[in-house]
């Protein structure tokens, strides 16, 4: 049982920190909305600590310890941790799912760059699709096809975020554009990070990201009717609201360097209305065969983790390796800053 005070804390964190999700969550039934708010609050807290903190490696290692404590039934004495521990127990949340998010945040701490679109999708799988699959678990959905479409939605949302934030990321020394796209355009990565400009080549990259996102948004829609009826409206709302962010980038001529796309409250209300209509249509429309499309290769491990409720698996070798790298790097920095 989630404590009322902890739930109120999580609700406020999402209300002020994630306007898009807060808007979409209002259309979810309370039985899903409350644990979803807890899930997003915990994930948002983890992301913010890694993204905005001065010690990113240490933040990831701290998150590892917090997750281990939660799954050991001894959460840190903090509202998000206590509430998430309750969600983990109530819904039997596979540890592989928050571990996937942990791995994505570890990649951020390493300032990893991605050679191609598949690499960007792999990153998106961890920081976004993992959350989408956890949402399915909160809806008591473990069907592999529905999970695969939830993963499509997560990747689409993250690609939209990347397209919107090209300039903001570059000014912070980050780049999520596929490096082979820059190579094709004859662009030097470091020069772009030093002086990001909305050149025709960069605009084309934003357009390519949004084209891939649009393809995956369309695929994801086939999975919504596989969800419990009371939850469909909120998921459609999330799809349309995030899709609307991409529309704003398009209207700016794919320039996300000199401007950052924003959506208004009126627009969000319009997309929520669109979600209501689409939910009604889904009740009388035959099931789409797209529901059964194979999952993206990059998200298959998430589908497998959530659809097979067998013996809990340990952390993957890849995650253990990246955590060990961060531990060594953090120790080295500590020894350098505190000489004997």
CATH fold label: Farnesyl Diphosphate Synthase
Q: CATH H level: which superfamily?
A: Farnesyl Diphosphate Synthase
Which class best fits the helix and strand makeup? mainly alpha
Number of helices: 16
Q: Please identify the oligomeric state.
A: single chain
Question: What is the general shape?
Answer: globular
End-to-end distance, in Å?
49 Å
SSE pattern, N- to C-terminal: HHHHHHHHHHHHHHHH
Helix content: over 70%
CATH class: Mainly Alpha
Q: How much of the sequence is in beta strands?
A: under 5%
Supply the CATH architecture: Orthogonal Bundle
Q: What is the radius of gyration computed over CA atoms, rounded to a whole number of angstroms? A: 20 Å
Written description of the protein model:
Belongs to the phytoene/squalene synthase family. It is an enzyme of class 2 (transferase). Keywords: Carotenoid biosynthesis, Manganese, Transferase. Its cofactor is Mg(2+); Mn(2+); ATP. GO terms for molecular function: geranylgeranyl diphosphate synthase activity; squalene synthase [NAD(P)H] activity. The protein has 340 residues and is an all-alpha fold. It has one domain (4-337): Farnesyl Diphosphate Synthase. The chain has 16 helices and no strands. It has helices at residues 4-17, 19-25, 30-52, 56-71, 79-91, 96-109, 117-138, 144-164, 166-171, 179-184, 189-194, 200-221, 229-251, 265-282, 300-307, 317-337. α3 runs parallel beside α6. The relative contact order is 0.13. The model has no long low-confidence stretch (mean pLDDT 91).
